[in-house]
Design brief:
It contains 21 helices and no strands. By secondary structure, the protein is mainly alpha-helical. The longest helix has 18 residues, at 150-167. The protein is globular, with a radius of gyration of 27 Å. GO terms for molecular function: mRNA binding.
């Protein structure tokens, strides 16, 4: 559509001007791309104004625009406005979709209205036009788990598991990852493996995010050999490891093979500059402890410099490097310079280490 192309090439201002020039009949087709543009830009004021205008012209005849507004309110943390959108849909006799119900439940959960979450779910069950699928049940599990209602979350997952098995063989490509996440949470590794193999047979592009779900399930369940075999298999299939792949392998190997964990850590750190991922604090310290234990000051120096470069060095790490430097009779000047740049305060026991270099 021309309006979408205008947004992509020339921006929202020209798209707005183009939209205003359209006749009412053409505006009906063009309104959703314009609204989506406002949602992407989180421009609540313009999105609301457009909805009012479209309503006045009688152009909102399906749920898509309302779902976009709910998405906007969720992304801008205006959770209280989501139920108001649902009210408007009901008033205008616009049918709710599965997405509408999921957004409504999530908004209530964000407001800690867990009683209303269940009310929405029951309403969805009674809606003959909507089928409760695994995505809704997975949404419920996430809501209940975050609220500490583990039993309710597990119950939702068990129902989701039955739903997954009932529709196996008819699963859309884009749903495989969520289904695998659901099965992994339930600990149903055998079924997860079957679904994964089915995905492999049907996929057009090898998405590493899908295989990473099974990789993580293997590692969490202590199935290291299977995890390693799967990793090699994905590489042979042309999968491109991302930060999540390295994180899973790194944390899994920490428990069994530190040499291999160090190898993976270096690969994982190579993608740090391209994403916001940062390893867990415990993982960072575990590698540093390993270098100290094996008196590997060269790797320790490299390690702290990388961590310093990406801005998540800590006093604990610097103390460890100071101890190693002192033991190897190295200069502390570079370490102290990095500490100063990171604004790390030198406390009493660290000060004693620094003074020891001067003796």
């Amino acid at each position: 559509m021309r309006l979408q192309s205008t947004i992509n090439v020339n921006g929202m201002l020209e798209a707005e001007e183009y939209f205003e020039q359209l006749c009412t009949a053409l505006k009906k087709a063009a309104c959703l791309p314009l609204l989506c543009g406002y949602v992407v830009g989180r421009d609540t004021e313009k999105a609301e104004a457009l909805m009012l205008k479209l309503g006045g012209l009688g152009l909102i005849v399906n749920p898509n625009s309302y779902n976009e507004m709910m998405n906007l309110y969720m992304s801008t943390s205006e959770f209280g406005n989501v139920p108001l959108v649902v009210q408007q849909m009901k008033k205008n006799k616009i049918p709710l979709t599965g997405l509408s119900y999921n957004l409504w439940m999530n908004a209530n959960a964000k407001l800690s209205w867990f009683g209303l979450v269940e009310m929405v779910y029951k309403e969805m069950l009674n809606d003959k036009n909507v089928k409760v699928g695994w995505s809704t049940l997975s949404t419920l599990d996430g809501i209940y788990t975050k609220a500490g209602l583990v039993e309710k979350g597990s119950f939702a997952l068990r129902i989701a598991d039955k739903t997954v098995k009932a529709v196996a063989g008819r699963i859309p490509y884009t749903n495989y990852m969520q289904i695998l996440l659901c099965l992994a949470k339930l600990g149903d590794i055998v079924e997860a493996e079957r679904i994964f193999m089915e995905w492999e047979c049907n996929c057009f592009r090898y998405d590493i995010r899908v295989s990473s779900v099974l990789l993580g399930a293997y590692m969490r369940n202590g199935m290291t050999e299977k995890a390693e075999a799967l990793h090699l298999h994905t590489l042979e299939k042309g999968g491109q490891p991302n930060y999540k792949t390295w994180e899973i392998l790194m944390e899994g190997r920490l428990k069994s093979n530190m040499d291999k964990a160090v190898e993976v850590m270096k690969k994982g750190f190579s993608v740090l500059q391209d994403c916001r991922w940062r390893p867990l604090d415990d993982t960072v310290i575990a590698f540093a402890d390993y270098f100290e234990k094996h008196r590997n000051i060269e790797d320790a120096n490299w390690y702290i410099r990388v961590i310093h470069l990406f801005g998540f060095a800590s006093l604990t790490l610097y103390k460890l490097l100071l101890r190693m430097g002192l033991s190897a009779q190295r200069s502390a000047s570079d370490i102290l310079k990095m500490m100063e740049e990171d604004k790390v305060e030198i406390v009493e026991d660290t000060y004693a280490l620094v003074q020891a270099f001067k003796v």
